[in-house]
Amino acid sequence: MTDALKTILVTGGAGYVGSHACKALAESGYQPVVYDNLSRGHRKAVKWGPLIEGDILDRARLEQVLKDVKPIAVMHFAAFAYVGESMAEPGLYFENNCTGTQRLLEAMRAAAVRTLVFSSSCAVYGGIHQAPIDERTICEPASFYGRTKLNCEHLIQAYVRAHGFSAIALRYFNAAGSDPDGEIGENHDPEPHIIPCVLRVAAGIEQKLTLNGSDHPTIDGTCVRDFVHVSDLAHAHSLAVARALLAEPVFEIFNLGVGQGFSLNQIVEAARRVTGRSIPVTYADRREGDPPYAVGKADKARAILGWSPRFTEIEASLQHAWAWMMSR
Question: Which of 16, 82, 145, 159 is the catalytic position?
Answer without folding.
Answer: 145
